[in-house]
Specification:
- The complex is a heterodimer of chains A (184) and B (310).
- Chain A has 184 residues and is of the alpha/beta class.
- In chain A, 27% of the residues lie in helices and 28% in strands.
- Chain A has one domain: Rossmann fold, CATH 3.40.50.2020.
- The mean pLDDT of chain A is 94.
- Chain A is globular.
- Chain A has 4 helices and 8 strands; from the N terminus they run βαβαββαβββαβ.
- Chain B is of the alpha/beta class and 310 residues long.
- Chain B folds into 2 domains: 140 residues, Rossmann fold; 150 residues, Rossmann fold (3-Layer(aba) Sandwich), CATH 3.40.50.1370.
- Chain B has a 5-stranded parallel β-sheet.
- The chains are: A alpha/beta (184), B alpha/beta (310).
- At the A-B interface, loops of A face α1 and α12 of B.
């Protein structure tokens, strides 16, 4: 799949500020870090969750338990994927009664989030599940919304939002592009 | 079928490329985690049906495939030769077509005749998985064995595995030697000359006594000795086999302290292995069984994921 760059939408500093704000909002909404668990959706939700956790640490002085979730086995488009390697899911113990914040890079159709919630439910019954995303690009196909959003980016379906993170891609940036050159 | 991924079978390990073996082993780690959860089930193969066609008695392999399929939310039908229309003379081909016509999405076959799964795979449009054919191949056993080795040894490249005993009649050894070689392990066998096969690949070291192989082996892989081999003239006596090849406490002391003792089961305690060794910390026989389910989940997921989707 090609990627033709149209715009650079977030810089390293923008991402940092957005995540710090999300950390504050999470603490505010949940009245502290008591009972919180941050769960990153693989791949890029995992480093994002780690960064939010370290912001929470510097704000509140509390280490929030972290987990990572691979949703491959719960996806509704499993038959369309080319030989996926299923990665390990690791959660810090049972989620029974916890306030779970799922973290992902981009919220689009909502299907990954649906799959992630199904997966989470297999690890106990959380008191509540919330969703934090770096980018909300619209075009939901399911009744799902994010509780914490780094940046709302209106897009067309033909466009691609690419989130790059130091841990996975060597740099921090969010790009907007298309699969191929647009005509006209 | 047009526009769909070509159907794939798993008949032996040499059908897989090295990269595929590695990604299967990697996926199996995720499936092992699924099996440790409070709810040991994921919806990945919901709505699929897997048929176990067993023309040879086997409880552990059948249970293992059954658990693997069920943990992926597939439905499982079990067909065993003695309890079915095989007794009425239904041919393998007819049985295969019947199962396919009923809407099965994959067939797992165990058959006493080498090559039977290959025939079935040619006839049917659905994936066929070889769960052991005659003295030929047992790919899922070989994959689970290298999975266990990798989990316990870390890197496999350059590590030595010694298969001990009845290499000649063993599909486990045959597939095992292939996949261990593929992964860059040094492979050796320790066996009486009558148990040495003609197919032994170049580069496989041969030991006439287990004692000579002990010191350098990271894995001692024991094979089941069938008692009837003595009547068939392969062994002068079981006692003689035991004295040169049984893995006992004394030999365990001579081996590397971190050696892995493996066995595909069922064990003949007192013949190829002593009860003490079977229960020693070096023995990973139970862990092999656990990992068997995870590795078979990875195989089923790989072959079935693409089939019949919307």
């Amino acid at each position: 799949m090609g990627f033709v760059l149209k715009a650079r939408l977030m810089e390293e500093d923008d991402i940092k500020r957005a995540l710090r704000r999300i950390a504050h909002e999470i603490l505010e909404r949940n009245r502290g870090a008591e009972g919180l668990v941050l769960v990153g959706i693989r791949t890029r939700g995992v480093p994002l969750a780690e960064r939010i956790a370290s912001h929470i640490k510097s704000i509140e002085g509390v280490e929030v338990p972290l987990g990572s979730l691979d949703i491959t086995l719960y996806r509704d488009d499993i038959h369309r994927l080319e030989q996926p390697v299923v990665r390990e899911t690791s959660l810090p113990g049972s989620l029974e009664g916890k306030k779970v914040v799922m973290v992902d890079d981009v919220l689009y159709t909502g299907r990954s989030v649906r799959a992630a919630m199904d997966a989470l439910m297999d690890f106990g019954r959380p008191a509540r599940i919330q969703l934090a995303v770096l980018v909300d690009r619209g075009h939901r196909e399911l009744p799902i919304r994010a509780d914490y959003v780094g940046k709302n980016i209106p897009t067309s379906r033909e466009e691609i939002v690419r989130v790059c993170l130091r841990e996975t891609d060597g740099e921090d940036a969010v790009y907007l592009g298309t699969e191929r050159e647009e005509k006209g | 079928m047009q526009g769909k991924r070509e159907k794939r079978d798993l008949l032996d390990v040499d059908q897989l490329e090295l990269g595929e073996v590695e990604s299967l082993l990697e996926s199996a780690e995720a499936f092992e985690e699924v099996l440790r959860r409070p709810i040991k089930k994921v919806p990945a193969l919901r709505g699929k049906t897997v048929v176990n066609l067993f023309y040879e008695p086997s409880t552990r392999t059948r249970f293992s495939f059954e658990l693997a399929a069920k943990s992926l939310s597939a439905d499982v039908l079990n067909f065993s030769a003695s309890a079915s229309s095989v007794e009425k003379g239904e041919s393998l081909k007819d049985t295969g077509f019947t199962v396919q016509a009923m809407g099965a999405d994959a067939v797992v076959i165990r058959h006493p005749v080498a090559g039977a799964p290959y025939l079935l795979a040619e006839w049917l449009d659905i994936p066929v998985i070889n769960a052991g054919d005659g003295m030929h191949a047992h790919p899922t056993q070989a994959l689970l064995d290298v999975y266990v080795m990798r989990k316990r040894l870390g890197k496999l490249e350059g590590r030595r595995v010694t298969f001990v005993g009845d290499i000649l009649h063993s599909r486990v050894a045959r597939s095992g030697i292939k996949v261990c070689t593929m992964l860059g392990m040094k492979v050796a066998v320790a066996a009486p000359p009558t148990f040495l096969p003609a197919w032994l690949p170049h580069g496989v070291e041969v030991f006439q006594r287990l004692d000579d192989a002990l010191e350098d082996s990271h894995v001692i892989y024991l094979l089941r000795i069938q008692r009837e081999r003595q009547q068939q003239g392969y062994l002068p006596s079981l006692e003689e086999y035991v004295s040169s090849f049984q893995m006992n406490e004394e030999r365990l002391r001579k081996a590397r302290p971190d050696v892995l003792v493996m066995h595909p089961g069922p064990m003949n305690r007192g013949v190829e292995i002593t009860p003490g060794v079977a229960e020693s910390p070096q023995s990973v026989v139970d862990y092999q069984v656990t990992c068997g389910v995870a590795v078979r989940m990875a195989v089923l997921f790989l072959l079935l994921r693409g089939a019949g989707g919307a």
